[in-house]
Amino acid sequence: MKFELMQLPYETNALEPYISVETISYHYGKHHLAYVNKLNALTEGTEYSNKSLEYIVKNADGAIFNNAAQVCNHDFYWHGLSGTATDPSVELSDLIKSCFGSIEAFKEEFISTAAGHFGSGWVWLSINEDKKLIVEATSNADNPIRHNRIPILTCDVWEHAYYIDYRNMRPEYLEKWWKLINWQFVSDNFANVEK
Ligand SMILES: [Fe+2]
Fold it and tell me: EC no. (predicted)?
């Protein structure tokens, strides 16, 4: 068993009241774990059994890709959250303002893209090949690294991410999710791309 379920970088009640312990017990403890288990079963004895998650996400197709990307996306999602308030770095904040006009305009674009995405998927803040920040939505398990972009933040818009706490109210989940963004993590991702 090569791939393992990541350890959450906080206690399961750290994101309350916006994301409940019950949601984490299902989303992390059942859905995320199931992707890890399926990935291990699918890659056993294949060329991917000793490859990195990133390599598999970039190169695999079908069920192996789907499960690897879902592991990767969820790892990224959980690290991107925090119960402690943080701010974006000055460098990131400046680029957000230059690409979107203001932090508030960026938030509006991100949340409207996430609210309007049809079906299951993910919404990302990514750096494109021109080194500009873009908001993009991907369907199902897809990840920007498949498209030569580097993600620095993601939001899970699969129903399993919010249905326990918010039922069908995806916009309400998004507003609360916004309060939990770990800007330190996002800023570190941005700084690593700039290096
Ligand atoms: Fe999820």
Answer: 1.15.1.1
